[in-house]
Amino acid sequence: MKQITFALAKGRLAEKAMETLSGLGITCKEMKEDTRKLLFTSDDGNYRFFLSKASDVPTYVDHGVADVGIVGKDTIVEENRQVYELLDLGFGKCKMAVAGEPEKRACLESGGLIRVATKYPLIAKEYFDKKQRHAEIIKLHGSVELGPIVGLSDVIVDIVESGKTLKENGLVVLEEMMPLSARCIVNSASFKVKHEEISTLIRQIERSLEG
Amino acid sequence: MKQFALHIPEGVKDYVGEEAALKECIENKVKEIFRTNSYNMVETPSFEYLDVFTLGEETFQQPSLYHLVSRQGELMALKSDMTRSIARLVGTQKVDVEMPQRFGYLSNSFRYPERYQGKLHEFTQAGVELIGNKSLEADAEVIRVAVRCLQAAGLNDFRVHIGSGQFLEYILKDLSLDEACKMQVLKAIEKKDAVQVKEILKGAPITTPMVEVLIELIQCAGQVELLKRIKAKIPSLEAKKALEEMEQLYQLLEADGVNEKLIFDFSLMSYGQYYTGMMFQIFTLGIGSALVEGGRYDTLLERFGRNLPAVGFGMHINLVLQHLIQVKGLHFRQAKRTLAVCTPMTYQICQEASERLRKKGQIVENSLMASLEENLSYAKKRGMARLLYFKEGKQVDSYEIATDSVERLSVDQL
Asked: Hey, which end of chain A has fewer CB within 10 Å, N or C?
């Protein structure tokens, strides 16, 4: 078979993905060893894996240097690349939401200009555009909850999992935007030239998720 | 301060040396295929009125275009797509022009992707448009020409994925989905989001086995047997007919062996709303997007005032070039060159002899250095094949660079 290269979003998604794959008999001892290696080959030699920052996964897949990527829906939408999204893996479930202090709800509904701090400027912009609301997007790279607390922004757009961080900072979910979970994306050309390998793999994963 | 004079903008590149030579070689081979298949080369302006590229689109705002404003304030754009320029050209023709018309082109186009994606903004496309004929023979011809172009350029390991633009439309019609739901499906397909397509279909207020078939089709591609298998599963007569046409197309391409490269591809996500019939894409290992994209578009010319069917393809020369470099490397094209060295006394005889060789198609470079040693070392460094030293009178020393051997010849022996 033709070798398939995976780009995995570093962290929990990668761990869950490797768990799912090992359920299908695709294992990779190399990855478990503590090395400085960046590229790993599966024990049977049929697959290669590399770990990357989540937001880079769609880039690798778009350029075709990875055939398959495993990454969150949030990243796929934000990066807006030409890749096939083939499978909802069902893990890493959370949601994208507008959050802020409870009293900002009025501000959100007033129709006036809202200042939004977020790590996801594209998602935020599209959301407010669709709602016909004027929003000024301020891109931040981490701890966006700080935005409303220190007065940089009215609200934030961010991933909400348990809501614990929000609560501790006196913020609440004002509007839910979309549900998120880990997805399997595929390079459009790989899906053609390695069709047999990739579609078999996708079907196997799908079956193991159902089971 | 950034020295702009020594930089080039994002998304453009220089082609020099062997890469430029290889690119030109590919282009010439492709043009030769166009010429011998009776496609007439056309050249259209590098920029035109914006409307040419936006006519019939959902919105006037097209962020992927390179916009210009003329001194009179008219909105224009750099050519983003030759097909539209040719459609405009046909729209301005007299109505009694003999059909079909065959156009070929080789042209740079310009598109704005998002920033820092590592993608070319200016790229070279070669392609054909066969206008004014709606037959399977025309479809087959266009596919055949595309395959021949790639083969002439030196590619062999590629696959042609064929689908049908109508097929999806018919199936969706048969499912009697409401308009809003249909739009959602098409939009999700446009975004290549199979997860969403499945969700919409599963949530739709219909329960027929067709939904299952449709979901299966999302990741389905194969040989001609697949076509037959799917045909048996589908109740829609129109969709069946679309599949039958694909079968006939396959038979037409059997005639010259092109069928061996075909794969029938029903993965819905490759469908754009642009194509109205047969559509195809050509892929090869190691290149992350389609080398060639084409198909039948019978409604585009109507927007330009002519109700004419058309079929064509566009080939990404840059991707073909990238693939050939990946597979064969760049050095393989090193042409055999000759360095001609003379003395003040033999200048004329050297020029005359060089000219005779050039007329035979050989590459002969004038030496601009005096000493024989300098010239020999230069020829070696440049990887030249031989050095001709016009010593005196009609006497010529021919140095074989690779073997370091010399042969004494007369000018007439060259």
From this structure: C
